[in-house]
Design goal:
By secondary structure, the protein is mostly helical. The protein contains ten helices and three strands, in the order αβαββαααααααα. The longest helix has about 60 residues.
């Protein structure tokens, strides 16, 4: 994303409606990041514009310029009503799109005007915001956003496409969640199986140890065996008094 695109998105986010009650947008309240905007009729800044190279009297409905560290949105003194609102929105869009030069007045190009119109329309009838507020009908969009019915129909089509995109994203995330749950269950079963095998092994070892004779029992048996062996190896009483030959003859 370029620096221009980041500013573009930032301005849209700053001025996005928070509820249905925020429609239509108030052109007098639109804001730019880091820079103030002064909105005045031509008669109040004609001398300043002349110093910037603007040759009056003013014939266009409105213009935007920059001096004294601030943006100025200027309109011809006889512009009023809905036309004034449109001028304020359009000239604000020029400021947001980076069309305004500093240090000297420079008229906007036809391409600049097209981009400003598109930006102003995106602010007034943002499909994402309208969808979030449950607005889908073209007539309702026209009333809320203060746009023509033809423009509202185009916005309604974008909302339908955006809703499908959101639904597809929800389904995709659901499938990922199900896969994650399945993997977690498999891992849990593997852990339980290992734990169960360990329990069985411990139980078998305990039974084996229980079945084996104790150390004291083994010592006792060995002692008894040693005593019997000693008795068998010792001479009897009759052999004790015999001479070796007699013992041999016997």
């Amino acid at each position: 994303m370029t620096a221009h695109e980041r500013v573009y998105k930032l301005v849209l986010d700053m001025n996005r409606p928070k509820s249905r009650e925020d429609y239509p947008l108030d052109p007098w309240a639109l804001k730019l990041p880091y820079t103030d905007i002064v909105r005045v009729p031509y008669s109040e800044v004609s001398d300043d514009l002349a110093r910037l190279g603007y040759e009056g009297p003013m014939t266009e409905d409105g213009l935007a310029t920059y001096f004294s560290g601030r943006y100025y949105i200027v309109w011809r003194d006889d512009v009023t009503g809905d036309l004034l609102l449109d001028v304020l929105e359009h000239e604000f869009a020029h400021c947001a799109c980076g069309h305004v030069t500093r240090g000297r007045y420079k008229p906007f190009t036809a391409i600049d005007d097209i981009e400003a119109d598109m930006f102003a329309m995106e602010m007034k009838a943002d499909p994402e915001a309208l969808l979030a507020f449950g607005v889908r009908d073209a007539e309702e969009i026209s009333t809320l956003a203060r746009v023509s019915i033809e423009t509202a129909k185009g916005v309604a089509q974008r909302i339908v496409a955006l809703e499908r995109q959101w639904d597809a994203e929800v389904e995709r995330r659901k499938s990922y969640a199900l896969v994650g749950i399945a993997v977690a269950l498999v891992c849990l079963l593997a852990v339980l199986s290992v734990a169960y095998q360990a329990i069985l092994a411990d139980k078998a070892a305990a039974e084996w140890r229980k079945a084996q004779p104790s150390v004291s029992y083994i010592v006792e048996k060995l002692s008894e065996k040693g005593e019997r062996h000693g008795e068998e190896a010792s001479p009897s009483g009759d052999d004790v008094g015999r001479e070796p030959q007699e013992v041999a003859q016997a």
